[in-house]
UniProtKB/TrEMBL annotation:
HAMAP family: LepA. This is Translation factor GUF1 homolog, mitochondrial. One of its GO terms (biological process) is positive regulation of translation. GO terms for molecular function: GTP binding; GTPase activity; ribosome binding.
Length: 700
């Protein structure tokens, strides 16, 4: 391939307006250029034959003419030389040099939530001068407003840092910061595949938590070198010795030379950089092999189309080359490739081991799916790299615009969010109580909360959400099973043979004194006990199989409150199990409210129905007539409440007088109320739809 040796810049001779930038290859033919700093265009199609016009050589670039000159010191094989009008000043492209894989280290930071990943990433960016002190802000890589406000990482983030190590050599360190919350663990698994090593951050005051273990398992499954680091040693409550012991006992990592750092104060953070260079293996040098690069993230930019983040395993990628996505078998021409330093900086080529981005005029994220392999269309690789399991939505809820006119806006907003969030799913549905809306699928409750918040903040939508539910497999007699994501769709009981519900394998790590209370909670949520391990003298791990439906209704909050915040939990999908489940419906004033329908375990149906009707009685405003609120399974009423009518003193104006007159007035009032009840419609307030959620909390 031609090697880029120099760049040039000049005005178009024809229009005298456009500035043209170009790069020369080894034979000093311009091989790619751009107009007015906008997109790069391959010159293969655009450069016309060069010619000399008097002493002023010029060159066609598409419809533009570039004025060029000679350098007399070198004899060129072609008539044209490097452009000399103005040599491209130190532009971004030239600051990034291609490096050999030996000088590259790809690593990610993994930890339990809030153990200090993003803070450590901040310090590393500062130490390597990737971000100047002036531009530095807390949690630099968390770019979403929501991430910064809540102090959590939602999306994985990448940054390329340049570091001169103690051995005097310069290294390129590609960092991937990952989220800690269990809902986003699929982001973690994606980033792990792009790395050779992981820094495992453990809070020295808290120790090994459930998510620490889960992430370590993921990292060792991917064959990564794990470097444990104790963070927050500046805290008075830090117990580095105890935590080191925990790491050795629970994870089995040697902690004899484990670093004790404070990401907040910067103590010992520079040593982390040395450890990365020393312990994390460099990527393999397979530059001669056909290109294979793994897509680990992508997002949609309204100006440039889909931006794909990838890691190259084999071969070389250059701007202007035609690439192919091996799974979707779609071809695109790369308009720009570059690295994330941490902002996008374009480069001409990237070699094996490099992490970068590319722009190729891709219109939908579906064309460049995360987990797909990029290869060259002209020299495709034989087989794609092992991708990822697709993120599967686990929790579903209905989203309805409070104002029916906003339905189309909601559709548009969901379409846009979906472009950058492949785990989100949605399909239209309608409800008699709430009109038209969408049934959306999320990875977990936090994911759901974040999507709802983004919809209201970024798109100004006022939404009503129904209580979250999970997906059930309903086996009908002599028919193939149905997947039900909306409880209202559950067929009549006599048609159902059995129902299967999703289960998760749950691990809770807790100080031993809270074990009893947490076991009680888990059992009340239909948990099936699997194992209990004493990890250290004071900490215990509990393992349960738990229905996902029980977990999504604020189980995590209860675990936290019962353990005074000290327990942590982690779960992953473990399969479907048969459950004795029924559809619990609610009728208000004789009319079933479909948005309040839910699938619950038969044993709990009565208590939930009772609590729900009581709660609705408080929430639904009183009307002129008496309103019955009933919880029902099929046509059987299992709980009932009445909202009393508003009373108007129709006798107020009767001073004394005849009793028959009073009776007449009261009779007239009773008749009026009866009529109103027959034609009256009860508006169920929005809070009522969330009642189900809060109910199950009180239920425990
Ligand atoms: N005292 C002290 N506080 C720290 C240190 N490192 C991080 N913190 C604080 O711990 C909190 C969590 O830090 P983050 O860096 O956001 O943690 P995280 O692991 O990235 O969190 P998620 O992205 O949500 O998983 C913040 O309030 C930090 O200021 C440290 O070394 N010492």
């Amino acid at each position: 391939m031609p090697k880029r040796v120099d760049s040039c810049r000049g005005k178009c001779l024809r229009c005298n307006r456009h500035i043209l930038y170009g790069f020369c290859n080894t034979s000093f033919q311009l091989y790619d250029f751009r107009v007015n700093c906008s997109r790069w265009v391959s010159t293969k199609r655009h450069v016309g034959l060069s010619s000399l016009k008097g002493n002023k050589p010029w060159l066609w670039l598409g419809k533009h003419l570039l004025h060029v000159g000679y350098s007399r010191s070198i004899i060129f094989p072609v008539s044209l030389s490097m452009a000399e009008i103005s040599t491209h000043s130190k532009g971004e492209e030239q600051t990034i040099e291609n490096v050999s894989p030996q000088q590259i280290r790809n690593f990610c930071i993994i930890a339990h939530i809030d153990h200090g990943k993003s803070t450590l990433a901040d310090r590393l960016l500062q130490l390597t001068n990737t971000v100047s002190n002036r531009d530095m802000k807390e949690q630099f890589l968390d770019s979403m407003d929501l991430e910064r406000e809540r102090g959590i990482t939602i999306k994985l983030q990448t940054a390329r840092m340049s570091y001169t190590a103690a051995d005097g050599k310069q290294y390129i360190l590609n960092l991937i910061d990952t989220p800690g919350h269990v809902d986003f663990s699929y982001e973690v698994s994606r980033s792990l595949v792009a790395c050779e090593g992981a820094i495992l951050v453990v809070d020295a005051s808290q120790g090994v938590e459930a998510q620490t273990l889960a992430n370590v398992y993921l990292a060792s499954e991917s064959g990564l070198e794990i470097i444990p680091v104790l963070n927050k040693v500046d805290l008075p409550s830090a117990e580095p010795l105890r935590v080191k012991q925990e790491i050795e006992q629970m994870i089995g990592l040697d902690t004899s030379d484990c670093l004790e750092i404070s990401a907040k104060t910067g103590k010992n953070v520079e040593k982390v950089l040395e450890y990365i260079v020393e312990y994390i293996p460099p990527p393999k040098d397979r530059s001669d092999a056909p290109l294979r690069a793994l897509i680990f993230d992508s997002y949609y930019d309204s100006y440039r189309g889909v931006i794909v983040y990838f890691r190259i395993f084999d071969g070389i990628l250059e701007t202007g080359r035609k690439i192919r996505f091996m799974n979707s078998q779609k071809d695109f021409e790369t308009v720009e490739i570059g690295v994330l330093a941490p902002h996008q900086v374009s480069v001409a080529r990237l070699g094996p081991g490099e992490v970068g981005y590319l722009v190729a005029g891709i219109k939908t994220v579906q064309d460049a799916r995360v987990g797909d392999t990029i290869t060259l269309a002209s020299q495709p690789a034989h087989s794609p790299l092992a991708g990822y399991k697709e993120a599967k939505p686990m929790v579903f809820c209905g989203l309805y615009p409070a104002d029916a006119d906003q339905f189309e806006d909601l559709r548009e907003a969901l379409e846009r969010l979906k472009l950058n969030d492949s785990a989100l799913s949605y399909e239209p549905e309608s409800s008699s109580a709430m009109g038209f809306g969408f049934r959306c699928g999320f990875l977990g409750l936090l994911h759901m909360e974040i999507v709802c918040e983004r919809l209201s903040r970024e798109y100004g939508l006022d939404l009503v959400t129904t209580s979250p539910s999970v997906g059930y497999y309903v086996h009908l007699e002599k028919k193939s099973p149905l997947l039900i994501q909306n409880p209202c769709e559950l067929p009549e009981p006599h048609l159902i043979d059995h129902i299967e519900e999703p289960y998760v394998r749950l691990e809770i790590i807790t100080p031993s004194e809270f074990v009893g209370s947490l076991m009680e909670l888990t059992q009340s949520r239909r948990g099936i006990f699997q194992d209990m391990k004493y990890i250290t003298a004071t900490r215990t791990s509990l393992i349960y199989e738990l229905p996902l439906a029980e977990l999504v209704t604020n189980f995590f909050d209860l675990v936290k409150s019962r353990s005074r915040g000290y327990a942590s939990m982690e779960y992953h999908w473990s399969g479907y199990r048969v459950g004795d489940l029924v559809k619990l419906e609610v009728a208000v004033n004789g009319e079933k409210v479909d948005a309040l329908c839910n699938i619950v375990h038969r044993d709990k149906a009565y208590s939930i129905a009772r609590a729900l009707t009581e709660r609705l009685k408080e929430l639904i405003p009183r009307q002129q007539f008496r309103i019955p609120v009933q919880g029902m399974i099929g046509s059987r009423v299992i709980a009932s409440e009445h909202i009393p009518a508003l009373r108007k003193d129709v006798l107020a104006k009767c001073y004394g007088g005849d009793i028959s007159r009073k009776k007449k007035l009261l009779k007239k009032q009773a008749e009026g109320k009866k009529k109103m009840k027959a034609i009256g419609k009860v508006d169920v307030p929005q809070e009522a739809f969330r009642a189900m959620l809060s109910l199950k909390q009180t239920d425990d």
